[in-house]
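Hi P.,

Sorry for the delay on this. The queue was packed all week, but I finally got your sequence through. Input first:
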Amino acid sequence: MKLWLGRAVVLVVALLAWEAVARNLDPILYVGPSRLPAALGRVMSVRDLPPLGSHLWLTLGEVVVAFLLAVVSGLWVGFVLGLQKTLGRIYEPLLAVLYAVPSVIWYPSLMLFFGLGPASKIAFGFLLGFLPVTLSVLAGIRQVPESLVTVAVSMGAGPGAVFRKVMLPAMAGTLAGGLRTGLALSVVGVLVGEVLGARAGLGYVLTYAYGLLMTAEYAALVVIVAVAVLTVDALGALVEARVRRWAD
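Then the structure:
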């Protein structure tokens, strides 16, 4: 209760400060929170903007496909490199370097290769989600105590039993954190791709409103994006917490 109360106080103070600053500035360029409900109503009623529902569903579909591809390929590559220690030592530094490079520099190449359609956004979301998933698998495998694996094998456990009863519980927390990060970055990748160049999607609607200087509607769309991202992250946090409790 104290935690939620503290968050509510911070939110209220931030909104009041935002409103106080915006009232003294140009209303065309600066929008206070008091103007957001009306702007949100105009956005939902499709007034002067592309229909939000279809673009929102398109973005959601792109995020789902990008994240599923990132999970499947990230788990496979991570386990291959983690279980084959020599391959892991060779390729892990390369993956770490790719993860450290600012991701936005890859998008122009993806846009040239896949075009302005959903494929380039899915590819960008996949690229951003793939690396943290793969690196979390590598880190999780290295956290498994070799003594536990040795004891399990000596007691007659096969490879499948060792993986299910020893390795998976030991690496579950790290793996869940990597999946949560991969989900967040897949969402960011798809949205950034739509903002940088797209003909449809939530990011495209944001760019459309910004280009027409519809500041209030743009701010309302930003709030919608923020709520959606926070909701996805909250769901990921709940799943991660349950996995960590199961592992403990």
